[in-house]
């Protein structure tokens, strides 16, 4: 995190190679600033959530620059913004799901979208089933259920995305 880069290590490798960032902290497309979570898709593209730039970047294998796929519009709560992006997962259609920790919500950004939609939370911090208190990690199971680690509530919540409506 302090080097503002993501490295890939192979078994037995002690150095690794930079696959995202590595050019200091900044907002340029060849930089990361405080990378938080990583997801690697089937094409070996690396998705990185960044606290320093309030965005999620996609780095295709071998790329020298990333592509902003979510956020990057400062740290507020509009549908174009993220406030403390953490856990990130990407489905097979390229839709990006982000734990928007500071806004206590889970966002969905379809491939190529300029804004996301809320699929869970966005009701302020709290302990109710429709609330989070700093959501962090995300994971899909093979049935399409989304699991969210709700950090300050010390719980894991399960959502069927097909049945989830936006707020």
Structure explained in plain terms:
There is one protein chain. With 167 residues, this protein is mostly beta strands. The chain has one domain (34-160): Neuraminidase. 0% of the residues lie in helices and 41% in strands. It is built from no helices and 13 strands. The protein has strands spanning 5-8, 17-21, 35-40, 46-50, 55-59, 67-71, 85-90, 96-100, 105-109, 117-121, 135-140, 145-150, 155-160. The strands form 4 sheets. A 4-stranded antiparallel β-sheet has the order 3-4-5-6, with no helix packed on it. A 4-stranded antiparallel β-sheet has the order 7-8-9-10, with no helix packed on it. A 3-stranded antiparallel β-sheet has the order 11-12-13, with no helix packed on it. Strand 8 and strand 9 (105-109) form a beta hairpin. The chain starts with a strand and ends in a 7-residue tail after the last strand. The model has no long low-confidence stretch (mean pLDDT 92).
């Amino acid at each position: 995190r302090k080097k503002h880069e993501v490295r890939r290590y192979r078994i037995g490798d002690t150095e690794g190679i930079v696959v995202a960032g590595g050019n200091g902290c900044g907002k340029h497309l060849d930089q990361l600033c405080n990378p938080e979570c990583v997801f690697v898709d089937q094409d070996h593209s690396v998705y990185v959530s960044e606290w320093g730039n309030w965005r999620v970047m996609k780095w295709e294998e071998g790329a020298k620059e990333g592509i902003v796929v979510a956020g990057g519009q400062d740290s507020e709560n509009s549908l174009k913004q993220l406030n403390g992006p953490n856990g990130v997962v990407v489905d097979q259609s390229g839709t990006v799901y982000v734990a928007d920790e500071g806004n206590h919500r889970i966002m969905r950004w379809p491939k190529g979208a300029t804004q996301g939609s809320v699929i869970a939370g966005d009701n302020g911090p709290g302990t109710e089933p429709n609330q989070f208190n700093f959501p962090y990690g995300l994971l899909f199971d093979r049935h399409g259920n989304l699991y969210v680690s709700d950090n300050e509530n010390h719980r894991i919540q399960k959502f069927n995305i097909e049945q989830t409506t936006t707020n």
